[in-house]
Fold this protein.
Amino acid sequence: MGGVLSLGLDAGDATSLVDALEAPLAAGAAVELAQVDAVWDLWSTLESTTATVVFLDSRWCWQLAQTHGSLAAPVRANLQARSRDRPFRHMVAVAPAGTVLSEDLAQAWQEIFQCSLTWHFSCAEARR
């Protein structure tokens, strides 16, 4: 599959989600949307998804990092197997303007998911 071209749309533009949804579809990828209400739902979704690129609300990032050690051993084993067999290529945190980035979070993210976390700012449409 070819790369996905970022369209560089303004985050405030009503069509700014094209980067997140339509571009991957145009490149032959599938997009999966999941509604989660608790960090444990998110862990379950991450464990079972076949997606390799993940967009998530930035409010979940620290919760994921902080709860990783509390996961049941079988879930951690499944996530390690998933990282080996079909690793996450990229994760994008959609964040409000003014969010402070953290080196500690970036390091924890790399250790947990073996991929980088990119921050996408001021995309109100994605947080609804």
